[in-house]
Design a protein that fits this description.
With 118 residues, the protein is α+β, with helices and mostly antiparallel strands. The protein is built from three helices and five strands.
Amino acid sequence: MVAMPRFGTIGLCLMAALAVTEAAAAAEGLPMPVKHYGELCQHSGGSITVDTNGAGPFMTQCSWPDQGRTECKVTADEVSVCAIRCESPACLKANPDHLNPSWPLAGGPGAPAQTQAN
């Protein structure tokens, strides 16, 4: 067995930690604060709208021109569940399950197509 220098071990640990952090940042999950969802929407090239009805849960939408939009239920200032309404083949490919959309949580129309685990 070959002994690994201390620097090599620290470097490997740091690389592994960064890989986990990047994977977590690449696809965030719900629920999340409305403000953060809006930031992800805008970062993915979308525009956010909020429909407050005065009492109880309300809805928010993230829209991408000619691509589609998410429609999300908001409770207690958190986006809890979303569905996506696609208008383009790219949207359909990146979001095969309309009740579990990857946009904007893992990017948007400008992001590489997401791969789905079977």
